[in-house]
Amino acid sequence: MKKMRICTVCESYTLSLSHCQEKTSSAHPLRYNPNDKYAKYRRMAKCSKHS
Length: 51
Ligand SMILES: [Zn+2]
Fold this sequence. Notes:
The chain is an alpha+beta fold. The chain is built from one helix and four strands, in the order ββββα.
């Protein structure tokens, strides 16, 4: 299975090690971590501070 990578410059998913003349990062699902079950509570707490 090929690893998906993401370009840090244009945020495109790619299989290349570089894009936009920069190294790409491995596209692990940092934005959605199923193990981080407290993430949404942290977000709620962060939001409530803004209100
Ligand atoms: Zn790019």
